[in-house]
Amino acid sequence: MSDWPSQLPGLDINQALTQLGGKKNLYLRLMGMFMDGHAQDAEHIRAAANNQDWTSVYEINHALKGVTGNIAATDLYQLCVALDAKLKQENHDVAEELDQMPGAMAQLLESVETVKNLPAE
């Protein structure tokens, strides 16, 4: 792990690698899966909220919360946790979380690109 940074903006690499038993190849695969499957989630959550489709907001956010926890995407994960808590209470006053998600996602995507270029061994 010494040839990798311990953290990047929005990403706790040490925490993630600890969770994954130090398996860098697995982490790199998870980064690719994140980019392929979740890079647009903040936009999808916003669109569903604008349509007051709270079931979709919950489902997309719940999936995003899980994957951001697995890759230790700390900032976005905390927003997902906060949004999840409000939705479970049927509290739809989520403008603050929705406003912060695009920036947290953009920061995370930049960090993911950096990680994808790190040596796997």
UniProtKB/TrEMBL annotation:
Gene3D superfamilies, alphabetized: HPT domain
Domain HPt positions: 23-121
Modified residues (Phosphohistidine): H62
UniProt keyword list: Phosphoprotein, Two-component regulatory system
Keyword match Phosphoprotein: yes
Pfam families: Hpt
Coiled-coil blocks: none
Protein name listed in UniProt: HPt domain-containing protein
Organism of this sequence: Bermanella marisrubri
Lineage of source species: Bacteria, Pseudomonadati, Pseudomonadota, Gammaproteobacteria, Oceanospirillales
